[in-house]
Specification:
WD40/YVTN_repeat-like_dom_sf, 4-stranded antiparallel sheet, nucleic acid binding, 15 strands, RSE1/DDB1/CFT1, alpha+beta, RSE1/DDB1/CPSF1_C, Cleavage/polyadenylation specificity factor, A subunit, elongated, 275 residues, Methylamine Dehydrogenase, Chain H, 2 domains
């Protein structure tokens, strides 16, 4: 059994994974002794506060050193690190985002940021597969307290699609959901036009308000660059309540139609029906 305060618990296959400080222990039920016995151990970075599992893959969220992506091998009962995020981050919550055939790792930190990471060893940015690649980042305005995986309604694809409910420490609730590339490009272009063309509350431009707040010094953060890649639903839904003439002008500026934009928004609304 593990000793010390347990920071996270998760089920992986028929085992129980526990995190106590930096030690990850895999436990198996022993009917003879009527107790859990350790069958595997892994020493993580500093202090693990969150742990997520999908199949035999684990992601560990550390109190200072971001996340590690691990794999449990039942054959030899070992835990192997596949990759990690090298940007120092005070992680509050993690979850896997399944959008077949892709598998994303969603990370929420103490600064109110959300990062979507991916294990892509074939990419140069992964440094030979040792580094998790950042696909998107976003600032939600409050630290994330918890993620909850949610199966989305989807009538277009045969494969199941999953999103993540986001619970903020300020009491807010949001939904993070994948979107088809064509619809994403259309809405991303519209989002850019709306940022510049519309007036915003308190003079706060959504583009600046949603920029990632790095915990690194300014010079290091600028060197790393940011991967936006997330749509601002609160801004985009303002399009529905705009006058018809303004809608036509905005869509004309990005080379599409009002109907096409409304269909894309309707698809997003259908997926988020459970909320």
């Amino acid at each position: 059994m593990c000793a010390g305060p347990v920071g996270a618990v998760a089920q992986i296959s028929r085992y129980v994974a526990t995190a106590a400080a930096a030690s990850i222990t895999i436990l198996e039920w022993d009917p003879k002794s009527d107790s859990l016995r350790p069958v595997g151990i892994y020493e993580a970075s500093q202090y693990v506060v969150t742990m997520s599992v999908v199949k035999t893959f684990l992601v560990l969220g550390d109190v200072m050193n971001s996340v590690q992506f691990l794999m449990w091998r039942d054959e030899d009962r070992s835990i192997n690190q596949l990759a990690k995020d090298y940007e120092p981050t005070q992680v509050y919550a993690t979850v896997f985002l399944v959008d077949q055939p892709s598998l994303g790792i969603v990370v929420g930190d103490s600064s109110g940021n959300i990062k979507i990471l991916r294990y892509a060893p074939q990419l140069l940015a992964s440094r030979g597969g040792h580094r998790l690649v950042c696909d998107a980042d976003f600032h939600i305005g409050a630290p994330v307290g918890a993620f909850g995986p949610q199966r989305l309604r989807n009538n277009k694809l045969n494969a199941p699609r999953f999103g993540a409910a986001v619970g903020g420490l300020d009491g807010s609730v949001a939904l993070l959901a994948p979107l088809e590339e064509r619809a994403f490009r259309r809405l991303y272009a519209l989002q850019g036009v709306m940022c510049n063309a519309l007036e915003h509350g308190a003079g706060v431009n959504p583009r600046g308000a949603r920029l990632f707040r790095s915990q690194l010094p300014a010079a290091a953060a600028a060197e790393g660059g940011r991967m936006k890649g997330v749509l601002d639903g609160a801004l985009l839904w303002r399009f529905v309540s705009l006058p018809a003439q303004v809608q036509c002008e905005l869509t004309r500026a990005i080379g599409t139609t009002v109907d096409a934009v409304l269909l894309s928004l309707l698809d997003v609304d259908a997926q988020a029906g459970m909320l």
